[in-house]
Amino acid sequence: MKKLAVLIAALAMAGVARAEDKIDFAKQIRPIFAENCYKCHGPQKVKGKLRLDSAEAIVKGGKDGKIITAGEPGKSDLFRRIVLSKDDDDVMPPEGDLLPKDKAQLIKQWIAQGASFGNWKADTGVAAAPAGQSDNALPAEPQLPKVAVADAGAIDKIRQTGALAMPLAQNTNLVEVDLNLVGDHVDNTQLALLTPVDKQLAVLNLARTKVTDDGLKALESLPNLRKLHLENTKVTDAGLTHVKGLSNLEYLNLYGTQVTDAGLADLDGLKNLKALYLWQTKVTPAGVAKLQQALPKCQINTGWEQAPAAAQVASAKPGATVAETAKPAEKPAAEKPVALANQPKVTTYQGKIQNGSIVLDGSQKLPDGAIVTVVVIQPQANESAKANK
Predict the structure, then answer these.
(1) What pairs with residue 299 in β-bridges?
(2) How far apart are CA 124 and CA 54, in angstroms?
(3) pLDDT value at position 367?
(4) DSSP reduced 3-state for 49
(5) CATH architecture of 152-340
(6) Which long-range contacts (CB under 8 A, 24 or more apart) does 293-301 make?
(7) Model pTM?
(8) Which portions of the chain are predicted below pLDDT 50?
């Protein structure tokens, strides 16, 4: 019996020793990366500016910063994201099966042991990605410009209007300003507050404000502006003359404005524009088609499920708008399509307002480009009094 006990103890100690064996990156971790990660973060494709086929690249991280904190798996994005649930937006890999638990545990153990690469430096014999190439072999996303920190006093003055002013992302001094929440109180005068942060401003939301064409002159001094909301404003073609010089603009929302084809002509030089929203404007199918030719990589959304066919455009009466020429998706005969022309899909979200910001319940998320109308429901005064008794 004593010999048996000694044998069991010896086996247990051997198991502990195996569990604490040093992880060999080249033999145990690199094959996991090659099989599951190289297709998006390898020599032929580089998503998020992150490569996993060299020690130097892994240590450097991607566009969001470092992915490994040696000795701390819980603080390392490389491990954190491979153990998220399948429905999480940040899970890696984003498509296909989740990484098996045993492989995830190996990566965790490797990081906990200090994330050593041993003698491995990089894969050999594999062609590097073409210079300047990135996701899906398209040109790499422009690097965010390096700018000085925004003046704190200027940011405070913007916030005093009730607007939101916040950092655009980690590892950048660019900022986002949202005046939509106080749109009824914002006119051309308030746009002067943007001047002290003109170099840092990357996202600007002027939706439902009272700004006019003249007010948009203030935008001409925003060299790093990438996203601009002008939906449901009084902006017309004249205002777009102040937008045409925003060479870094990637997103423009003109929903519900009085813009026509003449205004679209001022946008054909915005070669970085990726998304343009033209619902309920005065543009015509011919004008949209012409702009699409000038900006083939831009997704132009007119609010219709299907763009007008070339024959429709050719046969349309001169000056006909999209609403007059295009046809929405087929509807039941009993309905009148004209009555529903250009009506966006309406979805109800629930949440509450905290410190002037809307916080949605649960895991609800607003889709990018959504047009939002906030309805505030407050209890009656007598009901509040009863509740406080």
Answers:
(1) 275
(2) 9
(3) 67
(4) helix
(5) Alpha-Beta Horseshoe (3.80)
(6) 294/268, 295/267, 295/268, 295/270, 295/271, 298/270, 298/273, 298/274, 299/274, 299/275, 300/276, 301/275, 301/276, 301/277, 301/369
(7) 0.49
(8) 1-19, 125-141, 305-316, 323, 325, 327-344, 380-389
